[in-house]
């Protein structure tokens, strides 16, 4: 994913959550339960988890498609040795050692970023469970109060978790040109499988 795509992605997320916040805060106070706008807003908010999941799936396949041409991926990152060069693999091993060195701030940031994302994920999971419990209680007491903080807490936390993961991942890529934890995993991997994840298919 290019830096331009990442910036566009962050913009889309910010716009969507701005609309979500306005709909959530304004509609319940300005429109009665059962009105058309109230109903449209309810379904818009209720569909947010589905949209979040589809959004995450789209990002996943975009990244997967991006990584099919590994020769181009590494060339864009600064590895310029020709695949036909006898020293191609040994040069790549040296390149990877330096590129993902723990001495580089970008790599340390990538490692810390992954740990932070795991921690945030656990916190959001706990909050989602609490919101589900409160949701069941509040829904039984207020069946007509569809757009309420308690009822939509679970939906908001779940959707926010998905969007936040994508945004944080994209932001890490934008700042470091590495995904969260990429440097740590690369240091543990065999350079050959980083260079040829699908096998050596060079036509030499």
TrEMBL record:
User: According to the lineage, what is the superkingdom?
Assistant: Bacteria
Which controlled-vocabulary keywords does the entry list? Membrane, Transmembrane, Transmembrane helix
Its transmembrane ranges are 9-28, 40-63, 116-135, 155-175
Q: What is this protein called?
A: Uncharacterized protein
């Amino acid at each position: 994913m290019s830096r331009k795509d990442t910036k566009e992605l962050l913009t889309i997320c910010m716009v969507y959550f701005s609309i979500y916040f306005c709909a959530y805060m304004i509609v319940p106070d300005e429109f009665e339960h059962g009105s058309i706008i109230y109903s449209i807003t309810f379904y818009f908010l209720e569909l947010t988890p589905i949209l979040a999941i589809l959004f995450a799936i789209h990002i996943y396949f975009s990244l997967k498609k991006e990584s099919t041409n590994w020769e181009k991926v590494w060339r864009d990152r600064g590895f310029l040795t020709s695949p036909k060069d006898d020293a191609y693999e040994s040069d790549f091993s040296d390149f990877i050692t330096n590129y993902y060195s723990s001495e580089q701030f970008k790599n340390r940031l990538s490692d810390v970023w992954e740990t932070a994302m795991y921690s945030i994920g656990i916190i959001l999971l706990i909050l989602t469970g609490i919101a589900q419990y409160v949701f069941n209680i509040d829904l039984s007491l207020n069946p007509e109060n569809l757009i309420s903080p308690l009822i939509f807490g679970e939906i908001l936390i779940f959707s926010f978790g998905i969007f936040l993961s994508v945004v944080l991942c994209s932001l890490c890529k934008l700042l470091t040109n590495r995904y969260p934890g990429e440097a740590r995993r690369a240091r543990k991997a065999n350079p050959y499988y980083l260079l040829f994840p699908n096998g050596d298919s060079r036509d030499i």
